[in-house]
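Good morning,

Attaching, inline, the backbone tokens for the sequence recovery test we're adding to the shared suite. The designed sequence is right after.
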């Protein structure tokens, strides 16, 4: 007997969803959450057009959404989820068996043969199909939420990376100005020293200030290049595409501190990660239920059997049974239940971490706002006043040059602190916006302590 099994699709209902069917809900959700249509996986021409002029924060986000390869990979996962969905809603394969039997010969000399054809459809899938289809729908919903979250998270990271780059460029300008001033002061001091009008100590102090300014300038130049490369990675740019320039400066503080009392509630309500986690729990629960049914139900197939004895056809029903006497799918059930437990714990972890991150973001944003405003309105004017008064005393020969150097250094330090606080405020604002859009960037960092204490002025 020769049995030739092969697989046929039982029905055409297992069609794979089209790309537009998979993507349309995600695109609509992104447009709603971003407040504008988002072009994900755009063309090279679109990216090139945006790179022709200096890019701002909004265009940087557009480039990333259109060009980031990791985002494209995340959206490709939708196709995987769509294929699994199509597989789950199908009835399963037909089992086709062909038996050929050859015997002796008839008195007339013809060879005796028998052909038996069985076509059987396993119907156990009809019992588990509702749960498996519900699981597939939940998995597809989770994949869509994950794809949208990936895009929104990328947008938030690009905004923060852009703030870092702009702040690094502004810091570089401050360091250049500081170096030029230190270099000029050291040059004048050298001329005075050559003329015998100043001490070796004063010359050494000015040279030391210049070399420290040179070190700070080198660091600032490196920070700009590093910030550019970090943004290049997020934008998906390489080669000649990396020759872009960035436009603008960090915006000043708003007149009032942001209203963030509802941030935790809004973040939970909008969270795509929670939505994906809930869908994953739903999918795992339905699969665990399907495995529970399969454990104690026999495989049951119904079909048709056709036999040809050479003298005519015989047609009748065909039944197949498989009883779970020795294999009650204990391993599959344990695995499904463990996956359900894991999904539930992960959803709980997402909720706990999301709430904590929202509270921390609120603290960070308000603290950065208060710090930047205090530096701008109180510390910087006070440091400028100290420089002005020290200069008057220096001109009146009532203060030594080192006191003036320290006063100017303290003013510059306050400027650096203000710029850093402003950068941290706008980055925290991007985190706030991301939470309201439905994702957490996880970018909350400890608030840095104050800058290096300046040396006390010497009176000797």
């Amino acid at each position: 007997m020769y049995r030739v099994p092969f697989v046929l699709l039982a029905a055409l209902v297992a069609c794979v969803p089209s790309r537009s069917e998979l993507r349309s809900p995600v695109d609509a959700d992104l447009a709603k959450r971003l407040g504008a249509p988002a072009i994900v996986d755009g063309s090279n021409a679109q990216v090139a057009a945006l790179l022709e002029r200096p890019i701002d924060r909004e265009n940087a986000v557009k480039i990333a959404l259109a060009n980031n390869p990791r985002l494209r990979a995340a959206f490709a996962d939708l196709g995987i989820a769509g294929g699994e969905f199509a597989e789950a809603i199908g009835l399963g394969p037909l089992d086709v068996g062909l038996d050929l039997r050859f015997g002796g010969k008839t008195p007339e000399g013809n060879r005796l043969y028998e052909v038996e054809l069985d076509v059987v459809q396993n119907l156990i899938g009809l019992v588990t199909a509702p749960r498996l289809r519900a699981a597939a729908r939940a998995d597809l919903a989770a994949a869509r939420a994950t794809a949208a979250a990936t895009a929104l998270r990328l947008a938030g990271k690009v905004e923060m990376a852009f703030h870092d780059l702009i702040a690094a460029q502004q810091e570089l300008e401050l360091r250049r100005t500081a170096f030029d001033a230190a270099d000029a002061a050291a040059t004048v001091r050298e001329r005075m020293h050559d003329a015998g009008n100043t001490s070796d100590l004063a010359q050494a102090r000015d040279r030391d200030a210049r070399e420290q300014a040179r070190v700070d300038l080198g660091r600032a130049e490196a920070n700009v290049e590093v910030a550019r490369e970090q943004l290049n990675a997020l934008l998906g740019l390489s080669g000649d595409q990396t020759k872009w320039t960035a436009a603008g400066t960090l915006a000043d503080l708003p007149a009032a501190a942001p209203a963030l009392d509802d941030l935790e509630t809004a973040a939970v309500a909008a969270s795509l990660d929670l939505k994906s986690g809930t869908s994953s729990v739903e999918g795992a629960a339905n699969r665990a239920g399907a495995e529970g049914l399969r454990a104690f139900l026999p495989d049951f197939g119904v079909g048709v059997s056709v036999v040809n004895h050479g003298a005519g056809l015989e047609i009748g029903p065909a039944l197949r049974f498989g009883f779970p006497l020795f294999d009650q799918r204990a391993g599959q059930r344990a695995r499904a239940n463990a996956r359900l437990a894991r999904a539930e714990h992960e959803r709980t972890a997402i909720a706990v971490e999301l709430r904590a991150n929202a509270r921390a973001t609120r603290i960070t944003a308000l603290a950065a706002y208060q710090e930047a405003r205090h530096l701008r309105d109180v510390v910087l004017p006070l440091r400028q006043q100290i420089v002005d008064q020290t200069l008057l005393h220096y001109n009146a020969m009532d203060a030594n040059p080192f006191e003036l150097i320290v006063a100017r250094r303290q003013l510059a330090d306050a400027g650096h602190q203000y710029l850093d606080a402003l950068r941290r405020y706008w980055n925290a604002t991007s985190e706030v916006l991301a939470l309201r859009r439905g994702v957490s960037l996880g970018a909350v960092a400890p608030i840095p302590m104050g800058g290096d204490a300046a040396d006390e002025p010497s009176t000797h």
